[in-house]
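Long-time lurker, first post. I've been practising inverse folding by hand and with some scripts of my own, and I keep getting stuck on stretches where the structure tokens seem ambiguous. Below is the full token string for one chain I'm working on. Before anyone asks, I'm not after the true native sequence, just a reasonable design that respects the backbone. If someone could post their per-position residues I'd love to compare against what I wrote down in my notebook.
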């Protein structure tokens, strides 16, 4: 047995086998107990197995300087997660609250009452481990006297028994917040490629190049909730920014945290164009004028409202990639790394504050000078208005959603090794001391279409502070 707010116990078994540098198998089994869960559901079993076949060690494979290694790999395993559960979850904790009360008559006006304690969170005794299982198939290869290396992996990851608040059929009259439940299933499927080249041209000069590429597709395969007719529910998100309502929602078949917004079809270029946007003779946007956003009547009912929202992707990039390289010449070395993503989107909510004229408490971006006007009809920024009668800025539309793909020069480092100079002194030579000077630059330049300060904002940009550009010079001394 074990006790404590968050005592954990793990039992692990592992076995491995290899034969003749050709066949490799490793298997493991792990049982984890978590003190924060109720007894009976506080353990999870997490097996794993991996196998590899090194074909270049087989007799039927001819020896060659062009192909130095060819290995096939396969693995399957499960892991558990309890990161979203508070310590000692199994014990219901009391919450406290103070409040003031004012009587209509007498001396009780403004009296402060203290010490109200109550149950706030419902405890689910059946809550158990969130579990991820992954199948991986891979190939490792080396070519041309091991100068070129290649690793390719295909993976299929399934995460089930997700831990989240109950989102359906929870009564609002019992005074308790929705309890945590195991609900839903999420899939991730993709390919990862790692390519490298290392070569020594001479005694004094060598260089290396590397490329990493990863493609991932994410979607919710089982939302976990159904109505009485069997229709799948949704996972809602009430995150808002000022007067802009929520923009996130997750549905079955869609990525987690999808942008769920109304599409805009550009800007009305004239009052006549706005008046001509009708359904059965009635204006779809009755308050629209020249310079206002035109919103798509997706359900074709003649009104712009939440029923016109559409899923338009998520903040998660579809592709991650990096390119790095460097060289060493005598005591001088240089390295660099580019890093980027493609297929990512971000909600630039800060535009509500810096491109909008309805609020007076913010500095504006200089781009507001490019807002639509009769003499500037090529702008994608709606006209300036103190009242915003068309709700250009308060509509949860894709006007806020931008392409957040980017390529960034992440790091450059130049180093000069002065060890040979230092060790000319007998004292430092006897101690095998080392000395080097270096210059390094981080986040030097970013190529992107994103109009905010930094596309690497996590998909939600409420004027988030960007990553810093860092230039550093240093001395490394090992004495």
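-- Answer (accepted) --
I ran through it position by position. Result:
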């Amino acid at each position: 047995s074990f006790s404590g707010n968050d005592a954990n116990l793990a039992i692990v078994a592992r076995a491995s086998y290899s034969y003749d540098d050709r066949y490799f198998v490793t298997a493991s089994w792990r049982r984890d107990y978590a003190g924060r869960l109720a007894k009976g559901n506080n353990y999870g079993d997490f097996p794993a197995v991996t196998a590899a076949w090194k074909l270049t060690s087989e007799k039927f494979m001819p020896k060659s300087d062009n192909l130095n290694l060819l290995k096939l790999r396969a693995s399957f395993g499960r892991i558990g997660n309890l990161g979203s559960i508070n310590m000692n979850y199994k014990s219901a904790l009391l919450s406290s609250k103070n409040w003031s009360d004012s009587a209509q008559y007498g001396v009780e006006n403004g009296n402060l009452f203290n010490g109200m304690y109550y149950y706030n969170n419902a405890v689910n005794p059946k809550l158990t481990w969130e579990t991820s299982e992954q199948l991986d198939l891979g190939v490792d290869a080396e070519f041309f006297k091991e100068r070129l290396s290649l690793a390719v992996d295909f993976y299929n990851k399934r995460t089930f028994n997700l831990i989240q608040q109950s989102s359906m059929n929870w009564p609002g009259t019992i005074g308790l917040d929705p309890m945590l439940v195991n609900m839903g299933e999420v899939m991730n499927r993709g390919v990862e490629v790692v390519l490298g080249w290392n070569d020594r041209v001479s005694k004094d000069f060598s260089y290396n190049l590397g490329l990493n590429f990863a493609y991932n597709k994410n979607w919710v395969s089982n939302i976990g909730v159904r109505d009485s007719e069997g229709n799948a529910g949704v996972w809602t998100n009430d995150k808002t920014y000022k007067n802009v309502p929520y923009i996130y929602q997750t549905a079955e078949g869609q990525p987690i945290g999808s942008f769920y917004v109304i599409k805009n079809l550009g800007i009305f270029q004239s009052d006549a164009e706005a008046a001509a946007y009708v359904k059965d003779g009635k204006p779809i946007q009755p308050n629209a004028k020249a310079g206002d956003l035109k919103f798509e009547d997706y359900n074709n009912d003649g009104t712009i409202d939440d029923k016109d929202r559409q899923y338009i992707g998520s903040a998660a990039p579809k592709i991650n990639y990096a390119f790095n390289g460097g060289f060493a010449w005598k005591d001088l070395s240089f390295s660099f790394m580019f890093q980027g993503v493609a297929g990512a989107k971000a909600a630039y909510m800060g535009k509500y504050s810096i491109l909008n004229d309805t609020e007076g408490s913010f500095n504006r971006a200089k781009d507001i000078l490019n807002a639509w006007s009769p003499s500037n009809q090529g702008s994608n920024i709606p006209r300036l208005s103190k009242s915003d009668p068309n709700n250009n800025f308060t509509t949860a539309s894709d006007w806020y959603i931008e392409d957040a793909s980017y390529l960034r020069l992440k790091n450059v480092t130049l180093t000069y090794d002065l060890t040979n100079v230092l060790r000319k002194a007998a004292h430092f030579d006897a101690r095998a001391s080392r000395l080097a000077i270096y210059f390094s630059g981080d986040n030097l330049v970013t190529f992107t279409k994103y109009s905010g300060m930094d596309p690497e904002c996590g998909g939600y940009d409420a004027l988030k502070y960007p990553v810093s550009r860092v230039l550093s010079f240093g001395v490394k001394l090992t004495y």
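A couple of notes from the structure itself: The first helix runs from residue 271 to 275. The two ends are 50 Å apart (CA to CA). Happy to go over any region you disagree with.
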